[in-house]
Amino acid sequence: MRENISRRDFLRRSKGAVAGVAAAGMLGGSGQISQGAESYHGTPSQDTTYHGTQKGPPLRPAAFVIHKKAELAAPKGPRAVVVGGGWGGLTMAKHLKLQSPEMDVVLVETHSVFISCPISNLWLAGLVDQGFITHSFLDAATNNNYTFFNATVMDADREKRRVYTDKGYIDYDYLVLAPGIDYDYDAIGVHDIDQQQAVMSRYPAAFKPGSEHLTLKAKIDNFEGGLFALTVPSGNYRCLPAPYERACMVASVFKKNKIKGKVLLLDHNPTIKIKREGFEAAFHELYKDYLEYYPSVSIVGVDVEKKTIMGEFDDYTFDDAAIYPRIRGAKLIENLGLVNKYSPQKEAWIDQFHSNVVGDERVYVIGDSRPTGFSKSGSTAQEEAKFVARVIAGRMKGQEVKWETPYTSCFSMVNSDPMEAIYLGFKYLPPQAGITPMAMERVVAFWTHTGAAFAWRDRKMERSEEMGEAMLEWARVHYNEMF
Amino acid sequence: MLKIGRRAVRLPRHEYGKDDVIEVKTRIIHPNHNGRHKYEDKGYIAQHFINLIEVYYGDQRIISVDASAGLSQNPYFTFALKVTHSAPLRVVWKDTRGEEYTETVDIRV
Amino acid sequence: MIWREAITRRGLLGKLTALSTLLIFRRRAQGESEFDITPAPPPVYTLEERLTPILAGRTPKHERVTLTLPPHAEDGGTVPMQLDVESPMTDEDHVQNLYVIADQNPDPLVFSASLHPGGGQLRWKLNIRLADNSRVRAIAEMNDGDLFVQEVEVEVLVGGCG
Questions:
Q1: How many domains is chain A partitioned into structurally?
Q2: How far off is chain C from A126, nearest CA to CA, in Å?
Q3: Could you say which residues of chain A have pLDDT below 70?
Q4: Which chains neighbour C (Cβ–Cβ under 8 Å, 3 or more pairs)?
Q5: Model ipTM?
Q6: Quick one: fold of C45-156?
Q7: Partner of A376 for a Cys bridge, out of A77, A368, A384, C154, CB 3.0 to 4.6 A?
């Protein structure tokens, strides 16, 4: 038994990881220019390869330890613990059981009720009732033959294969982390903890379902007029079209209730980041008097008292707001020492072809804490979870499952009366390994569709009721995949 | 909505005096099409970008940037400026269609 | 100057090509955005085509220029860049021309700039486009003809579902 890793042992391991980084740094190219400057070489590249081939995060002992076993029945087979009951985690729990019926699956989730972030914009505008997006974890577990354990994960010891919750520890054979996101208020210039708390509670982002959504719903329902600010953050934020969809939905409420109010949509991006034609058309044709869109607004501060969002160039005063700050991988990933140090959003250090933590085939990270450029969306998380469930089932039998690119399907409601939606679906190209030289194809893909590379895609940017109905059907099918 | 050509030149919010180095921020709303984006199967969205940014401090042109389409959409340009005298600071943007946009702020010491 | 001629000539050729292909139609999209459609993208330039006229046989020194870019750019369409050049910016000693080159861009020359000593300290911030993982070079040409350079490697995290 390796009960304890000594401090020296730990330091040695950490040093090993650092040495690995330094050695890899020697491999950089030289980029020589032949003509006109025989002696002008580029400097060697730093080792900053994002998806590196180093050993992975060092093992570390758990800091938050509870010396009591969680009250769970003894496992009847290999045990998989899934942490996080969002779209990824719920799909994972179900599909692990489908792929390997002998597996004992436990889903650990800190909330006791599931509220869906996808479709929540429709609920905010009163298009579906709360029951449509609210579900029971107990039903999910009962219907799919696994155990729901309502607890909060505090730490893990990957050497012992033990995960610690506030209600005792659980030993695992496989651990799947699907903890989602946390907010990064520092990135919008709100550094002071008091201010962060004030912004978070008074103008919640409402991208982590629960109280934030209830607060926002009340704000929209009770809005009496003026400017209602919504923001679009930088980076790969959760659900790229959601802020634009939400702007449409909130504007539709003002329009319907004849409120003298306008949505003020402040976008960090230079243009609408996704489904631009569809959203642009909706903004102009449906909400011309109810919505103002400002691109390239990088937020440098929020004054809660003065109800003002400070941009780098202009200040925007609002009457009410839901401020979506930049996001990052869930803090649990950082607390467990699993962050890829080069990830600009503190996401996990995983083998992106199999989703396991680099160097540890017993621990996997899926969903919005993954570092790959896939969309942080429910649909993508489900597809990914199904694939990773097959990876784990395969590895239990000593087989390696061939990597597949996920595809994603994504509807956005842009009109509420009638309910009209737009659609985008695509399949991703393989991830960029960072060590391969650029292929011309990638350049073309990039310059053709700024920001991402797709194998195929299907776009329906002309809003229609048909797509509106399809969106609700999409939700039912995807909920069915979890409950 | 923001139209092409909407622009901003911002001096620091804080006080400054003679010989201080201040940061001047500029930005113009412009699609900066680089000509390499496909438009459905009909061809490519033609080049249309800011290809010249000039800064005049008083009568003196202090900076002139000849840009390719390698600047981002809504070109952003910030520069340090040593304040030597009171004078208008004029920023001029020109694009590939020959449009010209000007914004002037006053530097006072 | 050699580089300027080279660049201008190429630029002119590019413009002539674009005109001769003729604009098929102009489309007013929904909203404000209006754009022309052309059958072909603009020409691609090699790194050497862009770099050779700037160097003009000179070898730049790795001094005085500090180029700051994120090692991992999360959006290749908007990569924040800071450019510092150590120079008193006096009549006797100043940066005369400034170039930024992104090796892997279809047109590697991001911009060429000329400066007058009146500006004082040299610190610029711009947002640039990177087509792919790329070396980015900033080259400063001083009034006495000396060249200084710094290169930075940037990995573009192609991502999102834009």
A1: 2
A2: 27
A3: 1-54, 428-457
A4: A, B
A5: 0.94
A6: Immunoglobulin-like (2.60.40)
A7: A368
